[in-house]
Each structure stands twice: as structure tokens, then as C-alpha cells.
């Protein structure tokens, strides 16, 4: 194709060269992807009945919940996501936390703090009620206090293995 252009200095010839293939029109589906929502109604109906193999079906990041067969689609129950929502009736907290709330910095708990959080209340109650023996051992020990060190270690290890 030749184009004749005129300039101030005279006649200039400019020749345009096309580098694209002549099949870049409607037939080259890879160059011009037409996804699910971009086609016409006729195109969508045609794709639903007999999908063209060169036109990709775009799922928008959603994982399939089954597989296709020659006759249709077979859903698999294990692939269907199950959303577990707890019952929040009577729940006092609100679902929103303001961005103006300051950061809460809490150092790791020391052994003394852990002992104070778990045992101090029971020991002070036993002391006030006179339920301590001659060696300050409890006369009526709780189930946790009556465990031997080996049993306590086994209990902690079993709890950890249940959590993990």
C-alpha cells in the first residue's frame, strides 16, 4: 500500500508495511482472547453447547468442585468447600476493630508469672482455710497437684500432640 503525502519541501512518498498475519481476524483466537464475559450472547450460547478448543474458559481464580465427562459435569463432595461458622448468639464483642487502637505489646510469660497465674490462687485459699500440711503440702490436692512429674509430662505431651 502506498501513501502519497505532501510536505513543505515537496512530495514525499511513505510506504507502509504490515507485519501482522492476515489470519489475525476472527480466526486467530490465541491472539485475541475472548473470555466468558467478553463475547456476545450468541458466542456464549455456542460456547455453552459446544466449546471451541482454542478459546480458554476463564474461571476467575475459582477452583473447580468436580470434573467433566463426555456427557456432563460430576461434582465431588470432597472438593466442595464447607464453611464452619460458630453460633454467636449472645456474643458481646463487636465485629469491628478501629485502626486507631494502639498496638498491644506483651512480653513472653516467665515461669514465675505462669506459676502465679496457675497455682497462687489455690495455694492462698489453702493457706487461709488451714488446708496445708506440715511441709506446706496441700491436704486436699487438686488432680493437677496430685500428678507425679512423669505423669504431668505425659499429659502435656499428649495435649501438644492433640493440638498439632
TrEMBL record:
Keyword entries, A-Z: Mitochondrion, Ribonucleoprotein, Ribosomal protein, Transit peptide
Pfam families: MRP-L27
InterPro entries per UniProt: Ribosomal_mL41
Gene Ontology MF term list: structural constituent of ribosome
Protein name (Swiss-Prot/TrEMBL): EOG090X0IZW
Cellular component, GO, one term: mitochondrial large ribosomal subunit
Family, as annotated: Belongs to the mitochondrion-specific ribosomal protein mL41 family.
Gene name linked to the record: EOG090X0IZW
Source organism phylogeny: Eukaryota, Metazoa, Ecdysozoa, Arthropoda, Crustacea
Natural source organism: Simocephalus serrulatus
Main localization category: mitochondrion
Amino acid at each position: 500500500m502506498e501513501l502519497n503525502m505532501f510536505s513543505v519541501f515537496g512530495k514525499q512518498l511513505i510506504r507502509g508495511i504490515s507485519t501482522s498475519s492476515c489470519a489475525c481476524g476472527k480466526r486467530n483466537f490465541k491472539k485475541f482472547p475472548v473470555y466468558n464475559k467478553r463475547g456476545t450472547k450468541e458466542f456464549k450460547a455456542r460456547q455453552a453447547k459446544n466449546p471451541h478448543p482454542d478459546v480458554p474458559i476463564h474461571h476467575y481464580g475459582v477452583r473447580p468442585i468436580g470434573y467433566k465427562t463426555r456427557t456432563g459435569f460430576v461434582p465431588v463432595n470432597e472438593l466442595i468447600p464447607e464453611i464452619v461458622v460458630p453460633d454467636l448468639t449472645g456474643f458481646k464483642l463487636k465485629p469491628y476493630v478501629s485502626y486507631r487502637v494502639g498496638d498491644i505489646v506483651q512480653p513472653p510469660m516467665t515461669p514465675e508469672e505462669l506459676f502465679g497465674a496457675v497455682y497462687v490462687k489455690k495455694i492462698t485459699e489453702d493457706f487461709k482455710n488451714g488446708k496445708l500440711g506440715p511441709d506446706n503440702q496441700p491436704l486436699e490436692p487438686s488432680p493437677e497437684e496430685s500428678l507425679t512429674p512423669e505423669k504431668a509430662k505425659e499429659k502435656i505431651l499428649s495435649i501438644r500432640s492433640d493440638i498439632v
